Automatic annotation (TrEMBL):
This is Uncharacterized protein. One of its GO terms (cellular component) is nucleoplasm. One of its GO terms (molecular function) is zinc ion binding. Keywords: Metal-binding, Phosphoprotein, Zinc, Zinc-finger. It holds the Pfam family zf-RING_UBOX. Residues 86-135, 146-189 form the B box-type domain. InterPro entries: 6-blade_b-propeller_TolB-like (IPR011042), TRIM45/56/19-like (IPR047153), Znf-RING_euk (IPR027370), Znf_B-box (IPR000315), Znf_RING (IPR001841), Znf_RING/FYVE/PHD (IPR013083), Znf_RING_CS (IPR017907). PANTHER family: BONUS, ISOFORM C-RELATED (PTHR25462), MEIOTIC P26, ISOFORM F (PTHR25462:SF296). The keyword Manganese does not apply. It comes from the Eukaryota.
């Protein structure tokens, strides 16, 4: 009876969370007691919350400043633990009333043994493999005694059964008396323990995978931070080089410029740090809860311990529901930092060193609103924007409006021949050639009128052949520079050619539903369909003969630009969801400058991207 009482007392001195003897026991407002370290871990799992939820009854306790040490200490329990630790343990095998002091404990026999009994015990062949612990190691806390689970109502009976509905271990007598009614599912305690250990291992495995997922996300954020830091370093190096070539009195200006770079990049790094901190918080949460659930050698036996374990398992299940990280957010944030560059002044303002610019875009208002109809790169590397209200506006790669030509021509399309002559398509579908001096060339082209062919568009290839597409008749006419009738006709079966661009041996056709690459006979070789009814695709040929495609959401004013191979396979994102001013008319054009900048033109504005 005394041995059974000791077992009951020992179980009462165990923390329901870690299942070890209490260390620095703290009392919650609901009167349940836990180790201080266990409460620290539970509180850490709930972020910045100062409310601590009891794992057994779910009641909440306010923890001022998240300092668990300020909670009340169970002095009586602490004293009892010290008394138990300091109490001599007597041999439980000797039959005499004056029992000698134990020197070891046999884990397999479940008995404390004096020197004589231990000596006899070690000589028996069947007991050689038993695990024997020295009392000095038990008292010092280096090892933990494995206790046999005895029924509290029937101390001589082992709790060999487990009721899944009551969440309790029970002996056979308790099962017969208290758990025999319908609704009580009884299984062997050993079966429950195996299932419990298996489910714990599964939770641990899932937690490891989720933790690895977020660790990859953190590593990716570090890479993005490094890219942004490299941009900052490059800008700083460029500024230093320009400064060293200038005079000493520019020190102040130099510091201002570096401060601007830092100001533009520090905000991005802060955003990335916040994302990293959040991801690391998930890792810490998963690690802490998973360790509390899985890093244990004992199975919870009483109701409080089972309730605490169930709560921790539920917390881990909730943590595992966290969605995997979205890489789009750090990409977008880092893009803002990577777009910063230093532009040096050359010429009259050389002594000002230069300025910090956003390399992603330049936003220029067109001279005439709601007028853009076409755009093409000029032979000298600038950009020509044709306007239906009249004229062609010429812009440099840095967005400077440099001149207006052919002011009286109502432009539907614009192009250039290899000898730098202008090719103009007016709003009546007439093609006209002009010299560099803007003198009209006396050549006639027999194109279809608006009534016959519908709206037209055109492009000029490297052989100076002019391709004119018609929406209404869904076909393309090919003209030579000599004029006259079309020398060839290309059908557009099943689609309406809205924009047309020459591309090596192909033509790039933009229609309402897709971008198509067709050969000179009209056979569709490759096709890229748009992914949503709110999106429209606009294509251009890059300086390295890849295909640039702008995906435009006109309703919300968002543009994404991507690069594709000549088979319309995706290569890379150039810009994602760039916000533009929504134009009145749903018509866009895209081209690339010879120097590499990408020009996207709405009917009102010109955007230049790097």
């Amino acid at each position: 009876m005394a041995e059974a009482l000791k077992n009951v007392i020992a179980q009462s001195l165990e923390c329901p969370v870690c299942l070890n003897t209490f260390t620095d026991p703290k009392i919650l407002s609901c009167s349940h007691t836990y180790c201080k370290a266990c409460l620290d871990n539970i509180l850490e799992c709930h972020g910045n919350d100062q409310m601590l939820r009891c794992p057994v009854c779910r009641a909440e306790t306010q923890v001022p400043n998240r300092d668990v040490s300020k909670l009340s200490t169970s002095l009586a329990l602490k004293s009892l633990i010290e008394d138990v630790k300091n109490q001599y343990q007597f041999c439980s095998n000797c039959k005499s009333e004056d029992k000698p002091q134990a020197v070891v404990y046999c884990q397999d026999c479940g008995k404390y043994l004096c020197y004589t009994c231990h000596n006899n015990h070690s000589q028996w062949q069947d007991f050689i493999t038993h695990e024997v612990l020295a009392m000095s190691e038990i008292v010092s806390g280096k090892v933990t005694v494995r206790r046999y689970r005895k029924c509290r109502k029937h101390p001589k009976e082992d709790e060999e059964c487990f009721c899944s509905d009551c969440r309790r271990f029970a002996c056979f007598r308790c099962v017969v008396m208290e758990h025999k009614d319908e609704g009580h599912r009884i299984i062997e305690a050993a079966v429950y323990e195996r299932h419990h250990l298996k489910s714990t291992e599964d939770l641990k495995s899932k937690a490891d995978k989720k933790r690895s997922c977020f660790q990859k996300y953190v590593d990716f954020i570090d890479e993005q931070k490094e890219h942004v830091s490299n941009v900052q370093k490059q800008c700083t190096d460029d500024i230093d080089k320009a400064f060293e070539e200038s005079v000493r009195q520019l020190t102040k200006r130099k510091e201002i410029l570096i401060g601007e770079v830092k100001g533009k990049t520090d905000g991005v790094e802060k955003e990335l740090d916040e994302m990293k901190k959040s991801a690391q918080g998930h890792i810490t949460h998963l690690t802490t809860v998973a360790d509390m659930v899985t890093n244990r050698t004992k199975v919870p036996s009483d109701m409080d311990a089972l309730a605490a374990h169930d709560t921790l398992c539920q917390d881990l299940q909730e943590a595992l529901k966290q969605e995997d990280p979205d890489y789009k957010q750090p990409i977008q944030s880092s893009r803002k930092g990577k777009s910063v560059s230093f532009k040096r002044n050359v010429g009259m303002n050389e002594l000002t060193l230069g300025k910090i610019v956003n390399a992603v875009e330049r936003n220029i208002a067109l001279p005439t609103k709601n007028s853009m109809n076409a755009m093409v790169s000029t032979p000298d590397g600038r950009m020509a924007v044709g306007c239906w209200k009249g004229g062609v506006e010429i812009f440099s790669a840095d967005g400077q409006h440099q001149q207006t030509v052919l002011k009286d021509v109502l432009i539907l399309g614009v192009g250039f021949l290899s000898d730098d002559r202008y090719v103009m398509l007016d709003t009546s579908n007439n093609i006209t050639l002009y010299t560099l001096e803007q003198t009209k060339v006396n050549v006639k082209f027999e194109t279809l009128s608006n009534d016959e062919g519908g709206y037209a568009n055109f492009t000029v290839n490297s052989d100076d052949q002019i391709y004119v597409s018609y929406r209404k008749t869904k076909k393309i006419h090919v003209f030579s520079t000599a004029g006259g009738k079309a020398i060839r006709e290309i059908p557009c079966d099943g689609y309406e050619p809205q924009q047309i661009t020459s591309y090596t041996d192909y033509l790039v056709i933009r229609s309402h539903d897709a971008i198509r690459l067709i050969d000179k006979q009209g056979v569709v070789k490759y096709k890229l369909a748009k992914s949503g009814h709110d999106l429209d695709l606009y294509a251009a040929v890059s300086q390295v003969n890849t295909i640039l495609i702008a995906t435009v959401n006109h309703d919300v004013g968002l543009v994404s630009i991507d690069e594709y191979t000549n088979e319309l396979k995706h290569v890379q994102n150039i810009d994602i969801d760039y916000k533009i001013e929504k134009p009145v008319r749903k018509w866009y054009y895209m081209q690339q400058y010879r120097s590499g900048e990408i020009a996207l033109c709405t009917t009102d504005r010109l955007y230049i991207f790097h």
